[in-house]
Each structure stands twice: as structure tokens, then as C-alpha cells.
Amino acid sequence: MKGQEWYQADDVAAEYDDKRFSRGGRLIDRREKEAVLDALGPLEDKRVLEVACGTGRFTVMLAERGADIVGMDISAAMLEEGRQKAQAAGVSDTLEFMRGDAARLPFPDDHFDSVVAMRFFHLADTPKSFLAELRRVSNDQVFFDTFNRFSTRSIYNWALPMGSRLYSRYEVDSLLEKSNLELVNAEHDFVFPYGFYRQIPDDVASAFRSLDTKLLSVPGLDRLASVSYWDTRV
């Protein structure tokens, strides 16, 4: 099953968080949330759009911190999980979940202060057009992540039946140039791919994560990172 088809399957949504963010996956969840919070900065009254919001991991977190946020996803089942999460967190009245296509965002130009797209571009069939649309509705910031082509992720990706799109630095730079976005910061992380962390217990994952960060602290070895976070401005 291809990645987009798998993601939209109704039975995937109910188990999505447990499969990806339990065990060693908790490290991934924490790191991704840290990256989003660091990039967006102060959130009080900031207008934010999260594209491909899934089960609302980031949407709910940002609403709890004062953002005026809309979470959009193509999967109705994922959005229902997000609504339940928002209700449990007590923020269901302060955010909006809506179903939609990232290729045709139903918002005017420059409508949001920040647009966030996490775990999205590895499934994007036309990344150039998607990124241009994210840029269109943002008046300041577009923040997204990619899985990297020349990394251990390529081995993991080869073994995945659904596959995912991997990006080189040249490809990301080209996408940014064509979308008229300026890169202001990039962070590269996780030598060991996400799938590896999800298969091991917390304590074992912590040991590998320590090794991971030590490797990436060596000058030049960030090229081994399997994921990158891109903070851009319009």
C-alpha cells in the first residue's frame, strides 16, 4: 500500500499515535514538538495553520500555548482523533479542525502568521506546488521537515512497502528558491531512522539517542541525519 493510501485508511487513525510514539517513539515525539516550539517562538494570539495535522499532536499543543490555530488534514478519521484529543486537553473551543487538501487551501493570501507541515513532505507527490501553496497563505513563516536522501533513512525506506519521498539538500534549496522562501535556520537530527527507535524500549532508545546526538555534534557529520527541520520566511 502506498503511503498516502495507508495514511488515509480509517483503521490506521485509531492506532497511529500508539504505533509511532510509544516505546522509543516517545523520544521522536518530544524532539519534534521541541523543534516546532523553538521555531514558532511566542504563540499568544499567533495565527497558525497546521497542514497534515493528523491526530492533532502539534495542533493541541500549540492551542494550549495560546495560538489561534487551524489544523487541516485529508483524513476524516485522523481529524476525529484530533478532536477527541483537543476535548481531553480542554482546548476544543479554542482551535478548529477541518478536512481539506493542502494543494488547494481554502484561505486568502497571507492569512496566517505561521504555517507548519510536519510529516507531510515525505508523502507529497508534487512538493513544489504544495510548498508554494503553504507560502501563499503565510505572511511570515513556513516551517516543515523532510526525510533525507543520503542517510540511514534510505535503507529503512527501501525496506518499507509503502515507501516515502526522500530529499537531498540540493532538492530542498531548489524548492525554497522556486517558492520564494528564505531559509533562516535548518536543524538536522536522528542518525538512526525513526523506524528503528519505534522498535526498541525507552531505556534502550535513550542510550542510542545519546550516541545519536554525539555523532551529530561532530563537525560535518550532520550530513548523516535522517531528518531535517527547515525554518523559512516569505
Structural write-up:
The structure is a single chain. 44% of the residues lie in helices and 20% in strands. It has one domain: Rossmann fold. It has 234 residues and is of the alpha/beta class. The chain contains ten helices and seven strands. The N and C termini lie far apart (36 Å). Helix 2 crosses helix 5 and helix 4 runs parallel beside helix 5. A seven-stranded mixed sheet has the order 3-2-1-4-5-7-6, with helices on both faces.
List the helices and strands and how they pair.
Elements: H1 3-8, H2 10-21, H3 25-40, E1 47-51, H4 57-64, E2 68-73, H5 76-89, E3 95-99, E4 112-117, H6 127-136, E5 138-147, H7 153-159, H8 169-178, E6 182-189, H9 194-198, H10 202-217, E7 227-233
Parallel strand pairs: 1-2, 1-4, 2-3, 4-5
Antiparallel strand pairs: 5-7, 6-7
Helix pairs in contact: 2-5, 4-5
